[in-house]
């Protein structure tokens, strides 16, 4: 048997769906699969959106979770890449191989957990061998578990869509979340001048300690002036944004340089208007979400080359603590990833 965290539908009058810890049968391996003993798993904001019933394609009674690190305990089929005992991370989605535009067949693409693609908040997980990769050896289990989804999303936003290079001025909004922090680390690693926004001054200070040049509190009046002051009056070349909303309007009209790139991977603060004035300024708005298996492999190579360590905000012991971790995430005070160790 394998302990797992599943999604349970609740009464329509209850604000959140429920999380239930259950026992499931030991997975039976299909051809060319590997059985993983999961050692640590990480939460993403998508789990919260699923529980709020604000996520497409929800499948009730399915296992939650997209991020984990584990060790191979069994292999079905010959493998020239893996052996029993290898420590691996799992591609956090399925159905997207290498296309730079997006999943090759949209209807066959799923992010793991709470959808048609089985989640990974479980003691034992059956993974296709094509979708597992050796975890960077220098990372702890806690750090490795925190890497896949946010690390991949940030890689695609920064490099595939944002095309960030050395010397550019880059703005990362809402610093403190997993994707934003990886984007900060990646952009700093290639020599970009990184600036951040947050509603919490202490998070801006922590970002500066990680290599940001400065930042601005978007809750303060005329925050964009504070930001441009930090950049010595230079406008921003590339924006990596996960919030959008009213702040995006300000960025598009006052912060971005002519021909600047605005990459958005979420709209937690609502949508924004793109109008003729932005077109006349040659601004490009590029949507981005997750990434392909090819980008996932490149991301792993990049973090290993630059010895990037995921920022972990808090660690919880046992899958039974997933609900507690979600509650902490709801409060929005974390700086980095929430990770749950898996007991056996």
Automatic annotation (TrEMBL):
It comes from the Eukaryota. This is Enoyl reductase (ER) domain-containing protein. It comes from Mortierella polycephala. InterPro entries: ADH-like_C (IPR013149), ADH-like_N (IPR013154), ER (IPR020843), GroES-like_sf (IPR011032), NAD(P)-bd_dom_sf (IPR036291), Zinc_ADH-like (IPR052711). One of its GO terms (molecular function) is oxidoreductase activity. Residues 14-340 form the Enoyl reductase (ER) domain. SUPFAM superfamilies: GroES-like, NAD(P)-binding Rossmann-fold domains.
